[in-house]
Amino acid sequence: MRRITEGIDDSRLYRDLGNFADMRKPLNQVMESYNASHQKEPLKLVLFDTAPQHLVRLMRVIRNPRGHVLMMGMEGSGKRCIARLAAYTSGYLFFEITLKRAYSEDDFKEDIKQVYRLSCNNPVVFLLDDTLTKNEVFLEHISNMLNIGMIPSLFTKDERNELCNQFRDKFENEGNSNIWECITENCNNNLHVILTMSQLGEKFRLKLRNFPSLISLCVIDWYHPWPEEAFRQVSKNFLLGDQQIKSEKMQLYLQHESIYIIMLQGRWKSDSFLLYIRSL
Question: Which residues of 87-122 are buried (b: 16+ CB within 10 A; e: fewer)?
């Protein structure tokens, strides 16, 4: 983290950071740095106590060669934001597929090619969400990536030659003769696949039965329902960030139990709730 917060190279040393309250400050600094460089899609993440646990766990996995993660939990639990922040904190490139109308298998393969081109020379976090993992054709390719590292016949002969020519000098200087094998090995070590799934329904069980590599080759990170304290911290952050709420009423709102009930019911983002709070 010191690489981002203080602008210096930090060696991989283990040290006790104390409790989660002590971790929150440097993590918030990292998130501010991320938002400054990603203004089109900033992170709006409240780092309640369980969020740093998931973040640290994810960073430990992707620091290892071929470290892949299966993030399990309900939608809206912050899995995507945690993945983006973990990639940025680790200094890795982040790639996420943007779905478009009539997104096909050929489009998916082109995106995979782009991921492999990036991972030839840099560590890459490749995030795949529920909308992609619902398609078994895509899951078949993802399973191949986890099992053997490269989808069979993904690159044409001309594309392989182009990549070999691009990295020939680098690998020949290291004493390697099989350039394509070196490129493949490099890509496999640099690529970190992160899958997000919901555990609900019979289809989920069928996916794991048909593609066992999703379990055997991934570290599973369970996202349980938010604890009560998380709702309190998120609601506090939400109210304090709204400039149209009268400051003299703020502490009264934060002490009122109905605010947390609204958070639990998922009604805190509704326009009617905001208009009501602002008018008081």
Answer: bbbbebbbbbbeeeeebeeeebbebbbebbbbbbee
The terminus-to-terminus CA distance of the chain in angstroms comes to 42
Q: Are 184 and 151 in contact (CB under 8 A)?
A: no
Whether the Cβ atoms of residue 107 and residue 114 lie closer than 8 Å to each other: no
pLDDT, one tens digit per residue, over 80-126 is: 889 999 999 888 999 998 888 888 889 999 999 999 999 988 999 99
Residue among 254, 233, 234, 232 nearest 245 (CA): 254
Tens-digit pLDDT profile for residues 35-92: 888 888 888 777 777 888 889 899 999 999 999 999 988 777 788 889 999 999 888 9
Q: Where are the alpha helices (DSSP H) in 101-217?
A: 105-119, 130-133, 136-147, 157-173, 179-190, 202-210, 213-216
d(CA 267, CA 95): 31
For residue 57, give the H/E element and its range.
helix 50-62
Q: Taking Cα atoms as reference points, which of 238, 199, 233, 231 lies closest to residue 215?
A: 199
What global pTM score does this model have?
A: 0.80
Characterize 245-278 residue by residue with b for buried, 16 or more Cβ atoms within 10 angstroms of its Cβ, and e for exposed: beeeeeeebeeeeebbebbeeeebeeeeeeeebe
Measured distance CA(277)–CA(206) in Å, rounded: 46
Neighbours of 58 (CB within 10 A): 26
What is the per-residue DSSP string for 3-28?
A: HHHTSS----------SHHHHHHHHH
